[in-house]
Amino acid sequence: MSGPLQGIRVIDLTSVAMGPYATQIMGDMGADVIKIEPKDGDVFRHVAPARHPGMGAPFLNLNRNKRSVVLDLKSPADAERLRGLVRHADVFVSNVRPKSMARLGLDDATLRPLNPRLVYCAAVGFSEKGRYAGRPAFDDIIQAMSGLAAVQAHPDTGHPAYVNTIVADKTAGLTVAYAVAMALYERERSGLGQAIEVPMFETLAAFTLVEHLAGHTFEPPEGPMGYERLLSSARRPYRTQDGFIALLPYTTAQWQRFFRLAGRPEVAEDPRYMEPAQRSRNIHALYGMLADLVRQRTTAQWLALLADADIPHSEVLSMEAVVADPHLRESGLVQPHAHPTEGALRMLGIPTGFSRTPGSIRAPAPALGQHSLDDIAREWAQGEQS
């Protein structure tokens, strides 16, 4: 095993995406992650496509570097077995509602006396401090409640829209991963664990409002909410004569180079567009001009013209093209792996690099109940004695 979390033992009582994404990151970074599942398994096991029942593609992409143990936590005996494992754990992560965890005797207050060094993370939909505590939460609901669906509204119809990825789950999952890492760091100084709450609603609302709080950052407000550049109806991948490109001149020098390349040198000297504060006020007109100019050439012509201009740009890649991208293959993000039951797979690599303690992919996603809790408990106990 390798990675900066080598030797850290994680009990993973999570399902679907938010929690499993966080605990997979911990596993990639060397932690020993024990996934606790009910007899039917994590519901994401059953999401298509799949080669075999219970091993769906989303599950495979969120649960490598873990061991799977099946327990019926409504059974007092199984709940007690899990509490026994907690005595030897460093981290406990759950996305079960806190009231249910308390009924099971698996809440922080119950587990803390068993292991004062435990880092206990509750990944929940809504903070227990507010009136929405305990409400069910899924990605679409959180996108709607956080304002994200509203700012994604179609510029022509005004209809709100979801981002086509589980952005709330993954953003909250990343937050769980870094929060646990910070608590483990603090434990090295204090010798004590602590309880962490990561609520999806608050996490994504904060994520969205960083730039979109805008004029309401001030009291009284100095303007409306919403980062105007992002909300421009002309901001989108720009249509060329035969396709689309992404293009983002950002600094004054980049805008000036673009307009000179595009054959409009007079705009490069226009203070309405080249003075930063004025440019911000005229961003809609500027993006509209950009869109009109891009339509005049083919995608290949624009890529050739922009190649050495140091102006951020790209083709708009399909997902298939992303997987085949030569840079990502060279950096190791897409890797071939052989799964013992699912055969040849493409597996996503670890995007974060460490010079001395790199993470690693040591094991593919486990079959349901592939591992024994008793064996793991003995292994952990013996590890402490040695």
From TrEMBL:
- Lineage, top-rank taxon, reads Bacteria
The UniProt record lists the EC number as 2.8.3.19
What is the enzyme's main class? transferase
Membrane-spanning regions, if any?
A: none
Q: Does the keyword Lyase apply?
A: no
Q: Return the InterPro entries for the record.
A: CoA-transferase_III_domain (IPR050483), CoA-Trfase_fam_III (IPR003673), CoA-Trfase_III_dom3_sf (IPR044855), CoA-Trfase_III_dom_1_sf (IPR023606)
What's in the keyword line of the UniProt record? Answer: Transferase
List the GO molecular function terms: CoA-transferase activity
Note the Pfam families from the entry: CoA_transf_3 (PF02515)
Q: What is this protein called?
A: Acetyl-CoA:oxalate CoA-transferase
Q: What is the lineage of its organism?
A: Bacteria, Pseudomonadati, Pseudomonadota, Betaproteobacteria, Burkholderiales
